[in-house]
């Protein structure tokens, strides 16, 4: 399932791909066309592919990555070959790593295949590590890559100043409708590195954020999730406390089993069953027989 940051970045790329090309050090004055990235022959889909309509056209393939995937380099090779075969144009491939957790020993920018002592294939792609980019580089790239600025090489103490500079730029250049999109994207992408409360505090008072329906929906969803997680945590605590009083201290496997129960109604049902069982093992055995949610009664007609 696509994550919010994934959807957000794909939208920004489509809105103004030239800004993203500029960010990774590629510039063109030629028209840029979004093309179909579906590679049905392998049941896969590249993140974003653009046709650069220069006198000698070529394709630009961006792959966005927020977590480590050792198989990504081979996948980049496969995408490159399939795109070249499908469209008959040369393909430049760039992986944009959105945080350090996505980096690893396989992210070299080169795929080499060899048989015995003979190398028979070499494929090169660019690896763009956003957290290593100077703030100035990201700020200068373009309006539609501004939301990536907080993910650049910025220290937490400097973040308020960076956000202030972003506000000045957005207010001076972007239309009101564009401001709402840019700030909502900034908020979503900040979740890759920063605590939600910090992101909310730093962006508090941005009028476009306050007026953004999408932003408000994200906030409500986050509040609901936080409330639900708090209720589950409290139910787990009560179950452990009452169970310890009834059955003695739980061992590590019992604590782990309780931590895996994230349904508040199931936890409450276990608390109610406590007086009818003889120990932790018996109690947790009943958990498998308790439905996650009780079936709804049919509405009276």
Structural overview:
It is a single chain. With 301 residues, the chain is of the alpha/beta class. Helices cover 48% and strands 15% of the residues. It contains 12 helices and 9 strands. Strand 7 and strand 8 form a beta hairpin. Helix 11 packs across helix 12. It is extended.
Shape: extended
Q: Count the strands?
A: 9
Low-confidence stretches: 293-301
Please identify the oligomeric state.
single chain
Order of strands across the biggest sheet? 1-4-5-6-9
Give me the Rg, rounded.
25 Å
Strand content: 5-15%
Largest sheet data: 5 strands, mixed
Helix segment count? 12
Span of the ends, CA to CA: 38 Å
Structural class: alpha/beta
Roughly what percent helix? 40-55%
Order of helices and strands: HHEEEEEHEEEEHHHHHHHHH
Q: Can you give the mean pLDDT?
A: 82
């Amino acid at each position: 399932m696509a994550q919010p940051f994934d959807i957000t970045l794909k939208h920004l790329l489509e809105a103004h791909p030239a800004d993203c090309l500029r960010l990774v050090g590629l510039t063109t004055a030629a028209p840029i066309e979004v093309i179909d990235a579906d590679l049905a022959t392998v049941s896969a889909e590249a993140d974003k592919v653009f046709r650069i309509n220069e006198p000698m056209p070529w394709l630009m393939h961006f792959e966005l990555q927020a977590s480590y995937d050792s198989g990504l380099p081979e996948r980049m090779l496969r995408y490159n070959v399939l795109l070249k075969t499908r469209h008959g144009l040369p393909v430049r491939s760039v992986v944009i790593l959105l945080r350090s957790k996505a980096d690893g020993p396989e992210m070299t920018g080169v795929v080499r295949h060899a048989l015995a002592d003979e190398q028979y294939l070499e494929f090169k792609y660019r690896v763009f590590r956003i957290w290593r980019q100077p703030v100035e580089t990201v700020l200068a790239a373009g309006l539609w890559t501004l939301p990536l600025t907080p993910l650049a090489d910025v220290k937490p103490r400097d973040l308020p100043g960076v956000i202030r500079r972003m506000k000045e730029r957005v207010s001076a250049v972007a239309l009101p409708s564009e401001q709402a999109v840019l700030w909502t994207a900034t908020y979503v992408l900040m979740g890759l590195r920063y605590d939600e409360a910090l992101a909310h505090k730093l962006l508090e008072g941005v009028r476009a954020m306050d007026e953004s329906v999408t932003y408000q929906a994200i906030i409500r969803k986050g509040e609901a999730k936080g409330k639900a997680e708090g209720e589950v945590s409290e139910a787990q605590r009560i179950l452990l406390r009452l169970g310890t009083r009834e059955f003695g201290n739980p061992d590590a496997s019992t604590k782990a089993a309780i931590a895996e129960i994230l349904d508040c109604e199931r936890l409450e049902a276990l608390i109610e069953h406590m007086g009818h069982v003889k120990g932790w093992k018996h109690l947790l055995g009943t958990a498998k027989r308790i439905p996650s949610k009780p079936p709804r009664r049919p509405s009276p007609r």
